Amino acid sequence: xxxxxxxxxxxxxxxxxxxxxxxxxxxxxxxxxxxxxxxxxxxxxxxxxxxxxxxxxxxxxxxxxxx
Length: 67
Description:
By secondary structure, the chain is mainly α. It is 76% helix and 0% strand. The chain is built from 2 helices and no strands. The chain has helices spanning 2-34, 44-61. The protein starts with a helix and ends in a 6-residue tail after the last helix. 0% of the residues are buried. Belongs to the complex I NDUFA1 subunit family. Keywords: Electron transport, Membrane, Mitochondrion, Mitochondrion inner membrane, Respiratory chain, Transmembrane, Transmembrane helix, Transport.
């Protein structure tokens, strides 16, 4: 059992390292292209998700029509 754990650690370490690299690559590419880091919540996807979330919350708390 101990050998199986050791065999699994290398692939898991590689996967974890690649996830960390993938997250930081976006930051450095954007900083190199624009000279500053990306502002959080300032792209089309973030704005669309904020709008969707606001609509869902408004619908959830809207008064329901009574019969």
